[in-house]
Batch of 2 targets.
Target 1
Amino acid sequence: MSFQKACKDIFTGCEGSMVIEMEQNRTPLLDAVEDLIDTKPAYFRIPGHRLNRGISSRWTKNTGDLIFSYDVTETPLTDDLHAPGGAIEEAQKLLSDLYGADESFFLVNGTTCGNEAMILSAAFEGQEIMVARNAHKSAMMGLVLSGAVPVYVMPSTIADWGIQGEIAPEGVRALFREHPHCTALFLVSPTYYGICSNLREIAEICHENNALLLVDEAHGGHLYFDGEAAADRRRGALQCGADICVQSMHKVTGALTQSSVLHIKNHGVRSEVLSRVAQNLHLVQSTSPSYLLMISLDCARYELAMHGECMYEKAAGLAESARSRINGIVGFRCFGKADGCVFDETRLVISARGLGLSGFALDELLFETYGVNVELSDHENVLAIVTYANEAQDLERLVGACAEIGAAYRGQGGENDTRVIMERVHFPGLPKQCITPRQAYFSAKKEVSWADAIGKISGQVLAPYPPGIPVLYPGEMISPEAWAYIEDFRKKGRHIHGAGKNGKLEWIKIIV
Ligand SMILES: Cc1ncc(COP(=O)(O)O)c(C=O)c1O
């Protein structure tokens, strides 16, 4: 049963109508928790703050206390994430219906735990699994848990922007020839920067090779609502043939931080793996999942079902207008259609290289002088994520700040200006893998000075953050190239995961 719903409201702020399933008009978990609150229980369960009574007034004086009543636990009314048979089961079913999955799961430990569970399910100790080298470090954690042997596939480089691009289907095909026993391919699409791989073709290649396509779609849960993507590759992973995908609903939709979802679609390939996923999610998730997070997933799904296309359109429209205005500022440019990639139009990749400003420097200026917070920066670019919840005035501030920076810095810069990009960044090639991430994780290690680390076998991960893509995995030889790449981040004082307690990367753990 379906009906037309005019979707102009304060949530989306845009007009339009879409056909939605009547069923999607429900929020079973929100309703169940409200039913529990309505019983005005004498509460002797966990959590100890007793609904809205026990949270510090230091906090509630600003927020009010009602929201804390929703922080409850498993009861006969509120179901159990680890054995769902009521409200959570219904909410997850609505989610899988919306996304076209066979089965969907709420995750309360982010896409991080979903990626771990995917890899843990897909490959046992000693089995080969193909992993995109631009994968988030949660893939490495999955490899440590499973003991699988990674076979890395390199993404393309978009040299003009100093960023990594798509995973090419030809590269995947060639690697399957060399490693026909890979049980799965794990990749990220879209990337942090919004670059989409040709998942349809890659899914076919995987399935021809009796391998699963596992997609880290942390940044892509909104793409399913891009009405114009129907004919191109900017479509959701499930629509393109992925077997499992994970989405950070907190990154691009209205769910709270840490709230993600995992979807399964059975294509008849390695079906036994799919049945292991639920069990492996128990391994990587809390036994006390937060109801605030799960309710936020239920409500985010509801809003997408009601207004998803409007929400996407609004974000894409705001981003497109900002893109064209920033492109008009001398010294600035934005990644766009002319760069020849399929990309998520709601991502704004902005470079002020024309002014001699690195992405890091631009980020600092935007933050410190204009209060404009972008998601991340690199040597060349800053990345702004535009969502349905941004308003035109946010983009005004971004564009206005770029215009002022453009006026201030035109004609400045030069060799002695530390903000100037002296050279383009080259991503290091694949370091030699000496032992698997799991073997490395459990091996004896010692610390050596970072300055003396070249040629040693790394006992740890090193990943500039964000985006959290490891340059070195545990068990890999520290090549001069990888060392120099990380050293550049270290010298600039950038945040590196694995850089020790003081973050200065004075020492590194190596395998003894
Ligand atoms: C590509 C990618 N995958 C996974 C993650 C981890 O997601 P979460 O923060 O939901 O755990 C991130 C986080 O930034 C990411 O960028």
Target 2
Amino acid sequence: MKRVYRAASLLQVAHARNVLITAGIHCELRNQYLAGALGDLPMMETWPQLYVDDADEGFALSVLARASAVSAGNPWVCAECGEQMEPQFTQCWRCGVELARTTPP
Ligand SMILES: [Zn+2]
């Protein structure tokens, strides 16, 4: 198993887990309850972490990077219907086309 994500907030890790599951990647959430060991272990080692099978590491990292870039990115225009979309959306609300199938604005 390879670690592909960790964050101080369980909410962030749960979001990343949902992104991976949506992409069809099996993942395992570890350290969900390790915050109590803070002080005995290095801080980042107590953070919730996501692990995937070795073979899925590259794909998982690219999916997470894309999700991160989308949420922090710029508004985009749907290539199918021309609708202006906010960066947090990965699919056109009007016609359903996914961002990956459209061209950047
Ligand atoms: Zn559209």
